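Continuing the series of single-chain predictions for the mutant panel. This is the parent chain; the variants come on the following pages.
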Amino acid sequence: MKRSAVFARDDHLCVYCGQGPPEVELTVDHVEPRRKGGDNSSGNLVTACEGCNRAKGGRPAWAWLRDRTPERTRFLTVASYVWPRLREAVREAARLHG
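Parent structure:
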């Protein structure tokens, strides 16, 4: 999936914090990092601002969102196209952590 298509699908807003241009530079983030088995499919790619992407680093979204309630809530609300198993991992990590 092309970057421009990911950005357009996500309304040019970070799925984690909700910011967009011109306030922030956007990147494409792998919900499940490629080095952890993630792929480049539309169900694994989201728009993220540089700050959120940098903070998340190479961790899977569930690990990063576990104790970040506002970002987790936004992600689960707007990223409905993300693979169901990845969305459930985010919910489960929050339940176990909280």
